[in-house]
């Protein structure tokens, strides 16, 4: 295993064996805890995936290490995306090929998407993500108030109510490759132990939150710490990766047909933004699911204070696994907007709440009293 990255170990680029005139596949690892990696050594987070792919798919496989410090993943995702850009430039110099396929594990999938959003889309033919929290992760130590700007910065950006994810997920066409697929793990009901299945499936949403386009999604019975540990050709995850690298969405679909998160009965995220009005902070906003009558309010409505480019504050609610159909977002007394959700599928309402026409309680669904 040789490092083709720069001296000083700001980032590392590992490859084993001869370099051939073949497809370049880049593996992007996940979040690093402090002291979890040492400069100058490839810890092979993907186990034997690189060797197996090079043998089965006749391609060059590169392991990209974006953390060159024992401090772990402490910086912003765009910083690591810029390092990925430098690594791809290096691969192009070595191979003469400026087209790539990528496999991103966990946070690595978000780094790959951010690279694409920063102008890298023409260079990426295929992107497969493993256990990537596309819609965010509500997990310590990432529940940090936005205003504090504390470490871990990248972790803070993975919150479902972050400006970073808002920008990525309201511009899905510009932050994905032409061939895109995601694979999720599950070992504890609706989660792989770290990332919820409802967060790993990516869709393109209209401004009202309705789903305009779905992408390939499949679930496997693996934990977050084992979904990337591929050791043999018989491994289910390896077969999915191999199918995607060789044939894109069609290739992976031949291994497993595409699924929906709702098939697993999982909770999911509804992310929206609210214009600051006179009732902000007075028990608003809150969310009511019409089918179940359940009201989500108080500490069930998350925000770290991040705002959109137009100044609206971003909120996220985790809806229950059986929620489906009409959901109302109340942002003032008898003032709400209606969105329609699909069981298990996390969505983003891009149009700020309060910009559209005001609707009043009707059809027998009374507005609950605001929380105090």
Which terms summarize this structure?
372 residues, alpha/beta, Rossmann fold, Immunoglobulin-like, 2 domains, 8-stranded mixed sheet, 4-stranded mixed sheet, 7 helices, disordered C terminus
Shape: globular
Tally of separate domains: 2
Give the end-to-end Cα distance, rounded to a whole number of Å. Answer: 60 Å
What is the CATH architecture term of the largest domain? 3-Layer(aba) Sandwich
> What fraction of residues sit in β-strands?
15-25%
Describe the structure in your own words.
The protein is an alpha/beta fold. It folds into 2 domains: 2-262, Alpha/Beta hydrolase fold, catalytic domain (Rossmann fold, 3-Layer(aba) Sandwich); 267-348, Immunoglobulin-like (Sandwich). Helix content is 21%, strand content 24%. It is built from 7 helices and 18 strands. Strands 1-2-4-3-5-6-7-10 form an 8-stranded mixed sheet, with helices on both faces. Strands 14-15-11-18 form a 4-stranded mixed sheet. Helix 1 (49-57) crosses helix 7 and helix 2 packs across helix 3. The longest helix is centred in the middle third of the chain and has 20 residues, at 236-255.
